[in-house]
Design brief:
SH3 type barrels; five-stranded antiparallel β-sheet; 43% strand; mainly beta; 10 strands; 2 helices; Copper Amine Oxidase, Chain A, domain 1
Length: 135
């Protein structure tokens, strides 16, 4: 199930979101933020357009989304599942269960006890590595 909207202060250029217009949703990348008018620029396959936060929806993190972001599954962990992209790691406690996971880069490790959305993983990745996580 997709949450109603994303708060403006959670978004950064490069974040991947679903943008809704006239009942249709397109996956797109945040290109800009206009905090004064509370608008978010999003480039979709159709066009680049400005949306209000209530027209933007988070994308639940899943294996499909991780693979689109360039992660690879590693088979060295039991019973959970580990994914890696370069030196950044993400481990699920149970295969396919994104409700509890660990992420780490170098010595920094975060234990998350809730499901993430794609833009939240992107933000964690940037905070930890100072490198944008894009598809």
């Amino acid at each position: 199930m997709i949450a109603a909207m994303i708060r403006l202060n959670e978004l950064h250029p490069g974040n991947i979101v679903l943008a809704e217009y006239e009942g249709q949703k397109w996956e797109g990348v945040v290109t800009g933020l206009n905090r004064e008018d509370k608008e978010v620029g999003v480039k979709t396959e159709v066009q680049e357009f400005w949306f209000s936060p209530d027209q933007l929806h988070p994308i639940p993190l899943s294996e499909t989304q991780l693979l689109k972001l360039g992660f690879e599954e590693t088979k060295d962990v039991q019973p959970g599942t580990k994914y890696k992209k370069d030196s950044f790691r993400l481990q699920l406690k149970q295969p396919g269960d994104f409700s509890s996971l660990d992420i780490w880069w170098r010595e920094e490790r975060r234990h998350l006890k809730h499901s993430l959305y794609v833009h939240e993983l992107q933000n964690h990745h940037y905070q930890m590595t100072k490198v944008e996580l894009n598809a």
